[in-house]
Lipoprotein (Piscibacillus salipiscarius), 171 residues
Amino acid sequence: MKNLMKGSVLVLLLSLVLAACSGSEEQEEIISYHNDLTEFNDEVLNEIEEVLQQTETAATVEESYEIQKELPDLVGKMLTNLESKDPESESVKEYHDLRKKQITAWHEAMKLEVDILGQLANGEMTEEEANEASKEIDKLMVEFDELTQEVENKIVEFEEEYDIEFEEEEI
């Protein structure tokens, strides 16, 4: 289960900053929206990465649960931030909706994973039952990956349509 979360963080850690010389209001909204979102998410993703690193030292399921139980709340912060946004243009609304679906899928996967881990730690579930329940996490992570690809495609579309350059940032 640790590998699923670590992989999703790595997908999200690729941070892009949009830059453009000058442009339309819609172009400016795209840049502002994306950069604000990236800045906020980077902070939360750093916190998530710290938790995942701590998890690697856990010797028992109980220890792992105690460390990971805050992960859904951290991803929830990203979702709450998204929900506080009110984009104006249709392009940004579409991008916003994709991002919201993406983070919702990840949030649901995290909640389920931590719930399963908690049940394992408390002896409420066997390893076999946990493995069976984890299939739903796998489905959510496939959805997350597909939505991540859609988000990346939308970013490329913005780049081409609005002559926006992407600069990678090291995190």
Remarks:
- The first strand starts at residue 15 and ends at 19.
- The chain has one domain: 2-169.
